[in-house]
TrEMBL record:
Ranges of residues in domain Late embryogenesis abundant protein LEA-2 subgroup: 126-212
Topology relative to the membrane: Single-pass membrane protein
Biased composition (Polar residues): 18-28
Organism: Ilex paraguariensis (yerba mate)
Protein's name according to its UniProt entry: Late embryogenesis abundant protein LEA-2 subgroup domain-containing protein
Localisation per UniProt entry: Membrane
Amino acid sequence: MNDQHSRPVTGYPAATPAQPSTNPNGYSTTNTAYPYVAPPPPHHPYYAQNPYYHQQNPYAAQRATFIRRIFAVIIAAFIITGTIIFIVWLILRPRLPEFRVGSVAVSNFNLSSSTSLISGNWDVGFTVRNPNKKIKLYYDHIDARVFHGSDSLAATTVPPFYQTTRNMTTIKASFAASGAYVDRRVVDGINSERNSGSVSFDVSMVAMVRFKAGAWRPRRRFLRVFCGDLRVGLTGNGNRGSLIGGASQCRVGI
């Protein structure tokens, strides 16, 4: 028994634990050749490996730049134009002319109830005022009409005229109707008003006007004038009358 314990044991020597080696940089080299774990592969390796996928078309970039510059030029032009117009408006302060009816004379008025024919002459006197300090007005063409309600009775053209700054001008519009047909309700309406001693007429005008200020290029505008409820003294048997109630201010618009 003692002999067996004293005999040397033959076989492989016992393995000694491996000692971690360190490289000169201080990183451990145990069981790996790299100091860090390798990163995961890209999610889309096909597109990541395509060298042409992320390249931008140079012509598309130039076209986009050109379009942006065009838009910038247009916006700048609008801003500059608006600024110039605003400055001119501040300097000139343009105002519309003022129209006032000073007189209305009706003569040879005749209305046939049986045939619905109307005849007569209307002479309407206007006072036109240019309130502008730096703008002259050129009335190149003026069309005028006389109405009863919404029905036209006669039409005429007013001669052209010119107004300097702060000017007051008197003009006349002469209308004539000779056996003009009107609707039956117009006949009944006029006869009903004549029984009360007066008939109400309306006058409208459309004028082509040039606004001229110094060396600035003239601006053309259509001017619309409406003079309503011009009451003329006409009795049932009378064929002439004049404006009652004094002068009447007209509405003016563009």
